[in-house]
């Protein structure tokens, strides 16, 4: 009986000692967002997946991509205290870099521009993943009105 009471007292003491955890800080593979935004591309490269490392390492970025990144930097620098203006692009294959976090980019999907707000978990992915170029098909249900012949089938 004494061991049971000491067990209960021990658990109560343990519960009072534990600290409550605060809100989870957004991060990308262990790096906080504030540090992530200031890091250079060469520093963040080892944390990206293999596809991004190969693309940037072997080929680098084309002039179109560099111009797009420069446009993002200019928009951010123009309004440091406010949210930057939306940048429109057709570059669906653009890899999302850490310095883009917090910006809104409108990505063309073949018909219209879809606004995408860039968040920390999106780093290292392509813009095309967030601007669907097709509509997901949900086929009609079988039954009354589904086909020409079923229109005239009497209800029960």
Automatic annotation (TrEMBL):
- One Gene Ontology cellular component annotation held by this UniProt entry: cytosolic small ribosomal subunit
Put simply, this protein is called SSU ribosomal protein S15
Family statement: Belongs to the universal ribosomal protein uS19 family.
> One MF term in GO for this entry?
structural constituent of ribosome
Q: Which NCBIfam families match?
A: PRK04038.1, uS19_arch
Q: Which InterPro entries does the record associate with it?
A: Ribosomal_uS19, Ribosomal_uS19_euk/arc, Ribosomal_uS19_SF
Tell me where on the tree of life, at the top rank, the source sits.
Eukaryota
* A Pfam family this chain is assigned to: Ribosomal_S19
* Keywords carried by this UniProt record: Ribonucleoprotein, Ribosomal protein
Q: Name one GO biological process term.
A: translation
The reply on keyword Glycosyltransferase is no
